[in-house]
Design the sequence.
């Protein structure tokens, strides 16, 4: 199992802001698609405990990731899956024993993200067009190595690009809410 730390800042964007950023950074030909399949127990243990669980399909790779809050960032724990394993898990659910939980989870929601990435200051900017349950929204994420410097860089980016901060739920939460969950 691979573990990592995720320090990210995000805001929702309008379609116009998204398009403007894609053009500004000349990313029109550098957009890729990733599919996120979100899982939870029937009583939403994962969601209710501020955890996140997904299988992501990107660039012919399948990976299951659990996210847990750790201080002012997220800890991520990931396991690479074969395509057969991933499709079996999506269809039938799976156990979280590899992540230290005696829980069975099942597929709940899906998000397809069209993503472009650009380096910025001490991190990366992600420009996302997200589609889930017939809804399309746009967001920008900034992943940084340091939370204090990261928040300052993010705020300055928004200011310099005339983007008003708009709080954003995680993609998983937006997908769940779109289904009335």
Sequence:
């Amino acid at each position: 199992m691979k573990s990592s730390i995720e320090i990210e800042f995000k805001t929702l964007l309008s379609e116009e802001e998204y398009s403007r950023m894609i053009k500004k950074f000349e990313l029109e030909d550098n957009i890729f698609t990733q599919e996120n399949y979100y899982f939870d127990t029937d009583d939403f243990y994962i969601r209710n405990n501020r955890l996140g669980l997904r299988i992501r399909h990107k660039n012919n790779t399948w990976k299951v990731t659990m996210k847990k809050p750790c201080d002012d960032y997220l800890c991520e724990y990931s396991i690479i899956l074969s395509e057969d394993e991933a499709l079996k898990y999506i269809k039938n659910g799976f156990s979280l024993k590899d992540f230290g939980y005696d829980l069975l989870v099942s597929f709940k929601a899906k998000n397809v993200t069209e993503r472009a990435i650009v380096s910025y200051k001490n991190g990366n900017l992600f420009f996302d067009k997200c589609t889930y349950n017939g809804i399309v929204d746009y967001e920008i994420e900034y992943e940084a190595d340091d939370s204090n410097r990261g928040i300052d860089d993010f705020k300055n980016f928004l200011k310099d690009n005339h983007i008003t901060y708009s709080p954003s739920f995680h993609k998983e939460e937006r997908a769940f809410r779109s289904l009335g969950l």
User: Anything to note?
Assistant: Residues 40 and 46 are 6 Å apart (CA to CA).
